[in-house]
Amino acid sequence: MQWESVIGLEVHLQLATESKIFSGSATTFGAEPNTQASAVDLAMPGMLPVLNEKAVRYAVLFGLGIGAEIGKRSVFDRKNYFYPDSPKGYQISQFLDPIVGRGDFKIQLEDGSTRNIGITRAHLEEDAGKSLHEDFHGQTGIDLNRAGTPLLEIVTEPDFRTAEEAVTYLKELHSLVTYLGISDGNMAEGSMRCDVNISLRPVGSDTLGTRAEIKNVNSFRFVEKAIRYEFNRQADILDDGGTVAQETRLYDAERDETRAMRSKEVANDYRYFPEPDLLPVVIDDAYIEALRGQLPELPRQKRERFASEYDLSPYDAGVLSATRAMADFYENVASACNNPKMAANWVQVELLGRLNREDVEISASPVSPQALSGLIKRILDNSISGKIAKQVFEAMWQGEGSADEIIAARGLKQVSDSGQLESMVDEIIATNTAQVEQYLAADEVRRKKLLGFFVGQIMKLSKGQANPQMVNKLLTEKLV
Amino acid sequence: MAIEQDEIEKIAELARIRIASQQIGEVTQRITEILGMVDQLQAVDTTNIEPMANPLDATQRLRVDEVSEGNQREAFQAIAPAVENGLYLVPKVIE
Amino acid sequence: MHTKTVAQLAQGLQQKEFSSVELTQCFLERIDALDPFYNSFISVNPSAALAAAATADEQLTRNNAGPLTGIPIAHKDIFCTSGMRTSCGSRMLDNFVPPYDATVIRNFGTAGAVILGKTNMDEFAMGSSNENSYYGPVNNPWDTSLVPGGSSGGSAAAVAAMLAPAATGTDTGGSIRQPGAFCGITGLKPTYGRVSRLGMVAFASSLDQAGPLARSAEDCAILLGAMAGYDKLDSTSSELPCPNYRATLGDSLEGLRIGLPREFFGDGLDPATGVAIDAALKELEALGASLVEVSLPHSKLTIPTYYIIAPAEASTNLSRFDGVRYGHRCVEPKDLHDLYTRTREEGFGDEVKRRILVGTYALSAGYYDAYYKKAQQVRRLIRQDYLDCFEQVDIIAGPTTPGPAFALGEKSNDPLAMYLEDVYTLAVNLAGLPGMSIPVGFVQDKPVGLQLIGQHFGEARLLNVAHRYQQTTDWHLAHPAMPKGE
Question: Could you tell me if B82 lies within 8 Å of chain A, comparing CB atoms?
């Protein structure tokens, strides 16, 4: 049987607030265990939640960013379950009346085609603490620093058919939320975690199969691998005539497999009901309009503008607009050197290549937009060749100064002086008599090939600094 | 409404309360009486009545996003049943 | 000293007739000598109380004192007190010493009051007789074979027995007014949101409200003035400013319209209690008020509504007691499930478990609409009854309880009979209104309480009516006899 996967995603996005959603504790990542857990976070008797305005603001910004309905009266509910990382015995979440309602998210696949993904809803809730399973005499240690960190849970319709679509969505979502500045999007620190709902159905069918939920998949790559693994697992079961169990599974990155969770989810009944310690959150139009006015240019708009304004391919425009920092960097380079195409090429190939290799964020790039545009300008005015420019870039990366300083210090300026070049050409013709004879005896096609030999010799002699166009011209003039 | 003993057991499990087997009968009896009493509500017509969660129908105030709580781990963990290296200890959690 | 009201004691302190240390010492000695008869206190910390009294005396010396400076006050053991055990009447919190104060405690601290001790209560405030305490039942000072009422039974008994000049309580369904009535003292449950719930161990979040128990309406006004006010750390706390509750105590009752709900004077009311209530209403009429018969048609639904909402909220409020971060933890749990289920089996008493189970059931899948949602809808109808009445009248009056205090053990094995005790008080919590109980006489030597119900944030008017009544009557000044054996 040919199977097709039907995938929906739930993303838990940590919002970049200073303090927690319901308490005044810090949200800094990596603090000593339980040093950022206040009486509220620890669910001490009598403690009460008070809602953080910035969490509300960020949720609304997200809703506006995807053009969703904003819940003008949203309600917090208690989701009841016992687990040691959930100190109150319930999580404060939103069930019936979320702060962000139905919206749409358009993604663009690598082949340039687009797909529309339905956003079912996005709601505010609090994060749980962490269970540490290292050995404490066979016990588990609980750190509640993360408990109460604000989360926006973004739920999609089951609109994905492939792992690629799911990953593209996640990347573009990541791009959107960092543009909006509502999350640091730091995957390694768990700022964006994903639950994957996946079921299979025969290609062409429109009924849904039984789904499995894969919890807490924490990188784009793992999402892709988990979906592929789960697709094969479910297809094998269905091909053998079996049925897929509706269950929660965990993705084990080390073994590259998913497996059923043994705990939680044993006939869960969350007993949702309105949280009586909090009141309905009412958002008025003025608040919404003020936030709408603060919306920055968003990734999709920027991508489209880059493609049309700078004449970039859709792919290049996508890469260069992937993050706000990247887009700003690129636009600074492009406007300073006044050549968007060349700027795109240098940012994408040399700079990004280098940043990725060294695992450096673009915001921490040792080569600034001004420095990079200074280098491009020297290529454009023929002071250096593209090849030499790569050497200069390397030196700039190492902190040796601006392009001009490096070119001067290392004497890399391209030789365009015709007298100097002429004597080099003469020297090479004089010392390679055999090749000169071959050249003179050859037809047009072979001559072109042989000319490359002479150019190479001259470049070697000039340590790469000879202006290649002028050398070509001089050689064809002299070799007659 | 009559409630079966196994339903009480399910509810007790949800509430994480162990009920000794010799008590389950009595607990079931008591709960049945209480539920019988509250069942009076079923006769009330509440069509189009908005549920009331707060007696003042007030709305939520918002707090400015600022850190106001410092580290009080020592004070909090001084009253904890089991801690080590700053962590609360529980029997091994199996995922 | 121990027979004086808070207002009189404050005067005595300010005029240096006695010091706060002397006053506090007097009550500590009384507790030591007499509380074995009542069991009204769970914890007393004499050295801390005397130290606080000494500090208050310094303030008094500097003439830098407010109306509560140096006054010892007993607090229901539901309010968290920094460094002092806060048990909530439960084994679950028998070892719980909070590192923080409830806002109410902090407010009394700011006002210069002294913490005399922590009073006995029904476990997690669930009960109407104070028989559900891990620390044993409280005996009614008027007759130690009777219950003091609950859940603030310890506070009411302590004030009635003159072991404290005044006390705090909490009222989720009558837990200040009913023990106030049974013990012959004055108690006030303020409007929901008037007093901060922060640091008060939660029973039912949308119903809980703290208030004072004292010898007089004037004392209640003084205490409320210190307790009440906006707390930004309680989202349900009201930002409405508090009036000066003492300033209007003496206002005339001329023209006051008092509504008498016919549902409160029907079959369930003990006839002798009814007679005492009628006499009190006549007295109010004599003070210039007019009596108007009104109706609260949904009254008979208050018990079922309350006994869904309160247990539902309680069932999840009490989930935090899991043996992980504080409080009771079972010995050598064999796994996580065992830790939870055994800790909670051991830590909670029968009534608490029953209510958790009922509440869990009411919220569980398939029953939510039929129970919880339905109850929230009926709750709106109940509140509307009151709002409609207040179109016609200024306050509502009736009995606080269907009859006087009953015998210890009489109803402890019959939860439903116990729940009926709250028939007149529950609606006030469901509607979020302020309510008071004031002593208005005796039935066979047992005190009777008159309930006064005000409009939202109408505490000042209630206190005014109660005060004017107490100006012309002396029921509130009656003291129980010394316990036998002293």
Answer: yes
Active site residue C235: no
pLDDT digits (tens, 9 = 90+) for A261-295: 865 545 679 999 999 999 999 999 999 999 999 99
Question: What is the dotted CATH code of the domain comprising C1-486?
Answer: 3.90.1300.10
Q: Is C358 on the interface with B (CB under 8 A)?
A: yes
Q: In Å, how far is B19's CA from the nearest CA of chain C?
A: 7
Determine the Cα–Cα distance for residues A477 and A439; give it in Å rounded to an integer: 13
Taking only the tens place, the pLDDT of each residue in B3-49 is 888 999 999 999 999 999 899 999 999 899 999 999 999 999 999 99
- Nearest residue, CB atoms, B63 vs list A33, A50, A282: A50
CA distance A180 to A105: 15
| Contact check, Cβ <8 Å, A48/C197 | yes
Q: Do B65 and A18 touch (CB under 8 A)?
A: yes
Q: Which of C19, C43, C76, C446 is catalytic?
A: C76
The DSSP bridge pattern shows strands A73-74 and A281-282 to be antiparallel
pLDDT score recorded for residue B57: 86
Q: How many residues are given for chain B?
A: 95
Topology annotation, domain A418-478: Arc Repressor Mutant, subunit A (1.10.10)
The pLDDT of residue C486 is 44
Map out the domains of chain C as residue ranges: 1-486
Whether the Cβ atoms of residue C183 and residue C215 lie closer than 8 Å to each other: no
Determine contact, residues A410/A465, Cβ cutoff 8 Å: no
**Is residue B9 within 8 angstroms of chain A, CB to CB?**
no
DSSP letter assigned to residue A68: P
Give the C-alpha separation, A161 to C113, whole Å.
68
Contact C226, C6 (CB under 8 A): no
C175 is catalytic: yes
CB contact, 8 Å: C374 with chain B?
yes
Contacting partners of chain C (3+ CB pairs under 8 A) = A, B
